[in-house]
Amino acid sequence: MNDNEILEMDETLDFLEEEAELGMIDEDMVYPQEFLPTYETIQEGAPVKKAEQADFNGKHDSLFFNDGVRRIDFVLVYEDEDKKDFDKRHTFQRKKRRREYLEASLMKMGMALEATRSVVDDKLIFVKVHMPWDVLCTYAEVLHIKLPIQPNDLASRPSPWRFFSCVTKHFYPSEDKIGTEADFYTAPFEKDRLEYFYVKDQDNFFTPSMRSRMAYYILNRAPYEIRGNIKKFGITKLLDSGVYKAAYPLHDCRFNVRSTELGSPNERLLLYEEWAHPKSFYKMQPLDLIRKYYGEKIGIYFAWLGFYTLMLALAAAVGLGCFIYGYHTQETSTWSKEVCDPNIGGAIVMCPQCDLECTYWRLNSTCESSKKLCIFDNFGTLVFAVFMSVWVTLFLEFWKRYQAELEYEWDTVEFLEQEEQPRPEYEAKCSHERINPITRAKEKVPYTACGRCIRLSLGIGTVLFWILLILASVVAIIVYRLAVFFAFSAKLRAQDLKELEPFREYVTPQMATTVSASIISFVVIMILNILYERVAIWITDFELPRTKTEYENSLTLKMFLFQFVNYYSSCFYIAFAKGKVVGYPKEPVYLLGKYRNEECDPGGCLMELTTQLTVIMGGKAIWNNIQEVLLPWVKNLIFRHCTQAGSEKVIPRWEQDYQLQPIGKLGLFYEYLEMVIQFGFVTLFVASFPLAPVLALVNNLFEIRVDAWKITTQFRRMVPEKAQDIGAWQPILQGVAILAVATNAMIIAFSSDMIPRLVYYWSFSVFPYGDHAESTMSGYINNTLSIFNIDDFSNFSRPHNTPYWFKNSSTCRYRDFRNPPGHHKEYQYNMQYWHVIAAKMAFIIVVEHIVYFTKFVLSYIIPDVPVHVREQIKRERYLTQVIIHEANLKLVTKRLKPPEDDEEKPQHPKGKEEKLELELDF
What we know:
By secondary structure, the protein is α+β, with helices and mostly antiparallel strands. Among the domains are: 3-145 and 206-250, no CATH class; 284-342 and 363-422 and 450-535 and 564-723, no CATH class; 867-921, no CATH class.
């Protein structure tokens, strides 16, 4: 049978399976007798035993089979079809056939299985999986698991904080509960060199997380069906099709009750008490125990989140100081006092900001918003923006050093990409052959070069389409802003609405529009996120990456690009587009030929950007907590209530874990994404919102403990995974850090009013030689407002109504630097406009170059790997080479040694053996 015939048969059988599911044909017609997967087909006619059937022996929180000796490394759960009350069992028979074939495959691979019926629901069957010692040794070598070979003999360097240990010890987990783990040199495990490894106890040589990882590896590669030369395998496929309801490793105890069973380390209880419990919120995280229990991938995430939160404390302190400085200077700021002064701001009549329905208004109506703007728009903001640019560099460089230490301590230094095994979904699709460019050997791949290009092109096109959809939603929100601003202006400025008079000082059309538009923008963002999430996963599945790391990196890039545009596009619009192209009252600029572009307040758009950031950051934090914490807790509560057993029944450990929520396929992906988006808000727009680091710090202090509580108490235990670093998020953070320098410089230049003030202070102030700097800012407001003759209004723009106090006025003011009416260059930009533009461009160039140079110097002088870590890595590599050398030497000398019964042949003298050893060492 050739490949084409097999593929045609596979397609035919898939079609027949669908027909059988619908009950249109009989199940026996789907699988002819020669294709029935039976236990005999596993080992060429040799029968294979089924999983041992055992009743629950009543032990509570047991981590072992009923014999009390074999440890449970994984649990599979399925629903017994024989207990169902359906007449049609077509689908159930096929599921049962596949399940039995998978279990037989697992037993052929050396694993022990034991099946136990649920004590709560007799339809559920729990299959417990145990890996014997030989199987563990085999797959530890396959997965390149590093295990101890010798205790660390390098003297540890004393901590610089040891003198404060009497104080700092209270901020660390209790040493009585979580002791310090012994430090060993490690090497990749090799079954043939077992004597060189530090095997103190076979039962505890492989940790439970290692055993679970190896068990999951086998489950993903065990076949469950064979059709001719086509083999289908992997527990993931069976979970998706409902053959199994769940597959998970076991927690070692209840999170709040100590297990009394011999061999239970109670690490879950320790994590809850010293990490996840609210009373331990002030303590440092027990990262070594987190890594030991959940694996390196979980450990590196919490290490990164804790380090990021610690660095945020410094940024939050400086940002809070900047905010306090702005708060205390809002009443003394010259330009805000001029806006609020009845004789200055009250005497300045502003032009309408929309056509026909809007009317004239006094400048002092924006008094309160101008005072609030002073809190965020001051010279302290400039200092803080530069500080944050340096802070980002320090954060990334020090994180690299800390990550290098964790890589060594957690044995992930040599965790290379080529060591990672292909995904089961990738291996299942391998039907084409190619020549490996490195080994020059034939290998199976799922697609040709042309097919890969088609898949990538389709993925890129879909991502671009959704990004354009986001931009379309942003344009729709802009149109909403223009229409609503028109409506608010008509009502709030209307002369006959006397009841709004007390609120006009606090509720401006700009503020009302910004708040409502920010809320709508947040809702649109959440909806688009839900839709695009499924699209991104579908595209990545279609691209079929080879390894899980490649899969996650591809999905990470797609999701971040989408969410970057989704979350930040409205902020970029307010910061760099709003109020920049509005024309002037005689010739306003229109969007889509209908809506007049909206203008900023006389003090700029910075306050609106701050409002937008507050709404999105606050709403996002609340939504994530509801989605990540409240929903799993409610689901678990309902599940326990619906499946509650009688008081006389003891629920075993595997069934307790089944009642918890399952971990999603993407695991920590959404946790990273949430924090990286927050990192963007903290760095990209910090010049407009100095309190962003404070809010992020408060959120992260809760986030660490909430995530810890969630995965420790509400979710099943995750399958431990190896990880060297935070993956694709590292270059994304570096890109955001580089972009943050430009965005903050441009916010200060174009959204803030700082540069025009400095230009006025040094060049156009009325009192350049005053005794105080404050006196030189007098007249700034009047200087930044141009004059417009109301007779120059077009019929389309002229307001219908005028206030009673505007009867004798012939001019109004608008925010711009233009020549007054009657000038020979009427309404054209004046010289001050070009001075301000030149100052803005010079400011951006100078600040960017200074900050980028500082970032380069800091990156150069701070090494990525600490010196003591380099020494330990070299020492470990040396010991590994010595072990390999000794093993090879024994093998060589054994081959050179003559047989014992041959007495005539001379023995090798000791000197020759030493010479051989030196030559091999060389």
